[in-house]
Design a protein that fits this description.
Layout lengths: L3 H15 L24 H19 L18 H18 L1 H17 L2 H4 L5 H15 L6 H9 L5
Helix pairs in contact: 1-2, 2-4, 3-4, 3-6, 4-6, 4-7
Length: 161
């Protein structure tokens, strides 16, 4: 398995090449358990892993792809429940350390929550997790965004292009 450093270098190069974080090969060359670094001591790994999570959410949100494993595919992809659990666990620290990255993740989760039926999409994930996300994060932290916040989020992660 590649290291987090190798995956973040690849992610940064893909963002530059594609001019954004959408339509990337999330279930192929960018497949990596980024959630394991949401509380990493290394600033770059922590911010980069959160940026990857935002990219996964954007991919789903704009309907250009679906980078999450639902339990019925014959291939592996990203595990939505593991990302949600780790994000929820470290959300207050993430909000303080990376307010723009935090905001774009919360906004994307909120948009997806309004549009998608998570419980039907992910029948293998307990609805308690979704309830916790809704109650602890989405009901309290949703704000109106502007386009600049997305660039600021990439800048927070050291991934400006």
């Amino acid at each position: 398995m590649s290291s987090i450093n190798e995956k973040l270098v690849l992610l940064h190069n893909e963002i530059i090449t594609m001019g954004g974080i959408i339509d990337l090969d999330w279930c192929g060359k960018l497949l990596y358990p980024y959630y394991k670094h949401f509380n990493d001591d290394n600033f770059r790994y922590r911010a980069g892993s959160l940026t990857a999570f935002s990219g996964l959410l954007f991919e789903w949100e704009d309907e250009s792809g679906f980078p999450f494993y639902t339990g019925v595919e014959e291939y592996d992809c990203h595990h939505f429940d593991k990302y949600l659990k780790e994000f929820l666990k470290y959300s207050s620290d993430i909000k303080k350390q990376y307010p723009n990255i935090y905001f774009v993740i919360i906004e994307s989760l909120n948009n997806l929550n309004k549009r998608e039926d998570w419980e039907n999409t992910f029948p293998n994930i307990t609805s308690d997790l979704f309830s916790s996300i809704r109650k602890e994060l989405l009901e309290t932290d949703v704000q109106k965004s502007n386009d600049e916040v997305y660039y600021l989020a990439l800048k927070e992660a050291g991934m400006s292009f």
